[in-house]
Amino acid sequence: MTAEVVQGLSAAELPDPMVMPSRRQCPLDPPHEYAVLREERPWSRLRLPGGRVGWLVTRHEDARAVLTDPAFSPPLIQVTPNVDLPLPAEELQVPPGMFSAMDPPEQSRYRRLVSRHFTRKRSRELSPRIQQIVDEQLDGMAASGSPADLVRWFAQAIPTRVITEMLGIPEEDQEEYHRWVIAALTLATPEEELREAGSVIVGKLGALVAAKRADPQDDIISGLLLDDERPLTDEEVVSISVLLLIAGLETTANMLGLGAFALLEHPEQTAKLRADESLMDNAIEELLRYLTIVQFGLTRTAREETRIGDRVIPAGETIVVSLAAANRDPEVYPDAERLDLLRAETAHMAFGHGVHQCLGAQLARVEMKIAFTTLLRRFPDLRLAVPAAEVPTGEDKVFYGVHELMVAWGE
Ligand code: HEM
Question: Which of 47, 57, 137, 386 would you call most buried, defined as having the most Cβ atoms within 10 angstroms of its Cβ?
């Protein structure tokens, strides 16, 4: 079936250049325009902030090619192609340590310093502590009584506690860091508010780094300070910590909230998961593909002229790779628009691809596995407490998710 038939829309009806699609017709699906573009105009001219025009890429094959081509650099801040950065690009300098915005070999040098904390082995070793956190949060939710907001008790709280503990942020400050990360990743946060909150957090992190330099503990920040291989300045350690907070908290939180919503909306498939927990690893990969919470994709700019297939990309051109569109490409995933927790082809691009591929993927997988398994086990009759159409969703956030998920159980 062609995209035209599926969507009732053809590429000729879409603007050229495009504005980044952001309005969803269904809360669990990306905007319909992606399917049309992928089929009919896979390289689409895209309007960028500041009047520039770049490309929007929607096919899996092209997405992989762009993300593995060393001629492309990431931006300083991976926000959304619809929203201008708070400062003109010339004024933006990559802070030392913010390796998500760097190219190899600088990026790889910094990344190596933290990667040992995020290996599969290390992430699995954290399982008992993650299980404890999940149990405490679900105890709290059970005690609060049905109905309850799963976003508050479960989706937000678990990754916040995990990443702040790993960094060595004191418990009493965790909530403040969490609020700041949410503000930073909400598109409508006023610039002034963002700057103020940002400088408070950077100041707090600076003080924390100084304290740990004097009295190191068993956490990531102290580990970075003690590293002999490459002594880091306080500024570098603060930037790396900011990156880990921004990248590691709201991403996993949105996958937990939106993932729970998707499971409750597909009760027959979820019943199979409950009956056989060994299906959970596969189910998580499929949820990552299907939901692709990095909803505006990844931006890259060519430092030099390069070639993708038979297309020449001049130096300075910007390409936005839609991970959401690539992850629903029917060339790779049969019946791509369907959530199929038992799907055989589970390799996906929800964690990106190439040298910047998600550093925390193994940790996120462990968190999701423990969290979803425990949730389904503990609340066998969990259900939505409001009609699905009334669940507030986050088209206004860099990472897509649900703002609130009222659930009920018992009775
Ligand atoms: C389900 C949850 C998550 C999703 C969907 C996700 C997604 C992504 C994606 C798409 C990228 C690629 C960015 C690019 O190429 O420009 C990325 C990079 C990154 N992620 Fe994640 N992420 C998740 C969880 C985490 C966690 C738990 C951490 C831990 C701190 C983390 C840390 C990072 C870092 C540091 C980078 C930058 C890597 C680099 O540039 O070398 N992420 N993530």
Answer: 57
Phi and psi at residue 321, in whole multiples of 5°? -95, 115
* CATH (one of 1.10.630.10, 3.40.50.1580, 1.10.8.60, 3.90.550.10) for 3-408: 1.10.630.10
Q: Which residues pair with 311 in a beta bridge?
A: 308
The arithmetic mean of pLDDT across residues 45-52, rounded, is 84
Domain residue ranges of the chain, discontinuous segments joined by + = 3-408
Q: Do residues 336 and 360 make contact, with C-beta atoms less than 8 angstroms apart?
A: no
Measured CA to CA in angstroms, residue 42 lies from 4, 35, 183, 285, 333 at distances of: 14, 9, 33, 25, 17
Mutation to probe ligand 1, out of 245, 358, 368 (largest number of atoms < 8 A from CB): 358
| pLDDT confidence of residue 3 | 41
Enumerate long-range contacts of 93-97, CB under 8 Å, 24 or more apart: 95/235, 95/239, 96/233, 96/235, 96/236, 96/239, 97/232, 97/235, 97/236, 97/237, 97/238, 97/239, 97/240, 97/243
In this prediction the pTM is 0.95
Name the 3-class secondary structure at 212.
Answer: helix
Locate 328 and state its tokens.
């629903």
Taking the centre of ligand 1 as the mean of its atom positions, its distance from the CA of residue 364, in whole angstroms, is 9
Cα of 8 vs centre of ligand 1, distance in Å, is 35
Which tokens hold the place of 215? 């009295």
Residue 295 clears pLDDT 60, i.e. is over it: yes
For residue 182, is pLDDT > 90? no
CA pair distance 21, 40, nearest whole angstrom: 16
